[in-house]
Amino acid sequence: MWNRHLLCLGLFLMLSCKAQQPTAVPQSDSTPEAATKKSTVTFPAELPDFNTVALHAQVHYQDSLQSQKVTAEVRILKDQTIWVSIRFLGFTIAKAMLTPQEVLYVDKVNSRFYKGNYALLNRLVDAEMDFQKIQRLLLGRTLIPIDATANIRLVDQNWHSQQRWGKGLFYCEWNPQGLGLSKQTVDQPQNAQRVEVQLADWDENALNPIAKFMVLQMLQAGKTSSIQIKYDQIEWNQTLTYPFSIPEGYTPITID
């Protein structure tokens, strides 16, 4: 079992689930939601138009056994690098740096490190991970793009989309004012797994709108865990650095 610091670091890892290319889910007009109607809608840009972004966050991880609050600093060089530092009481307890090809992780509490591909993260969350899913999640976008033929409906004045994702289903709900994403869910009944992320406090007046509050909930094998993320500060297109080193004497984390 990975320690709780790694689980906190996994705030941007829990949401991706084993997937194939999504396809639309056919749905009859005779659904129980009699008030629904099919329509067309233009969704926000896939990703904000930016070069770099620095995110300063308060993070609260909780499951049936533990609860922990930490602070996180995330720096993103679009489509190239995600750098994360986790602090507890002012001390750095874990760091990670991700690229599309490589994952680097240092656990300063237990003097361990990982250097390799996404296999470790796949094992951690029982999911197929990649750089783009993590980047999209951190920026408040859907984990995968909405398919062009996805079933889209207006329900109680909120836009809903539904499409297949591998053997599961992918649902989204959109705020009608500005079309900010308010909820996305990946449901995998065959694995008894359900993952939901709720988004709120959209900074819609910013050049690049982003949700400043997220709640991630994961249900797997009857056990529930959650992560609350609150962005205190968001800085776009600043000159950022991504320092990362593995201290001498640290023990490598291996995958059995």
Keywords for this entry:
46% strand, mainly beta, 256 residues, 3 helices, outer membrane lipoprotein receptor (LolB), chain A, disordered N terminus, 16-stranded mixed β-sheet
Textual characterization of the structure:
With 256 residues, this protein is mainly β. It has a single domain (52-240), classed as outer membrane lipoprotein receptor (LolB), chain A. It has 3 helices and 16 strands. The chain has a 16-stranded mixed β-sheet that branches. Strand 3 (52-63) and strand 4 (67-77) form a beta hairpin. The longest helix is centred in the middle third of the chain and has 8 residues, at 131-138. The chain is globular. Residues 1-8 and 11-39 have low confidence and may be disordered.
Helix percentage range = under 10%
CATH class category label: Mainly Beta
Q: Please outline the major beta sheet.
A: 16 strands, mixed
Compute the separation of the termini in Å: 13 Å
Number of DSSP helical runs? 3
CATH topology (level 3) name:
outer membrane lipoprotein receptor (LolB), chain A
What is the CATH architecture annotation? Answer: Clam
**How many structural domains are formed by the residues?**
1
**What would the average pLDDT be, to the nearest integer?**
79
- List how many beta strands DSSP finds: 16
Name the overall outline. Answer: globular
Q: Which stretches of 5+ consecutive residues score pLDDT under 50?
A: 1-8, 11-39
Question: What is the CATH homologous superfamily assignment?
Answer: Lipoprotein localisation LolA/LolB/LppX
What share of residues are in beta strands? over 45%
Question: Could you state the order of secondary-structure elements as H and E?
Answer: HEEEEEEEEHHEEEEEEEE
Q: Which secondary-structure class do the elements indicate?
A: mainly beta
Give the radius of gyration: 19 Å
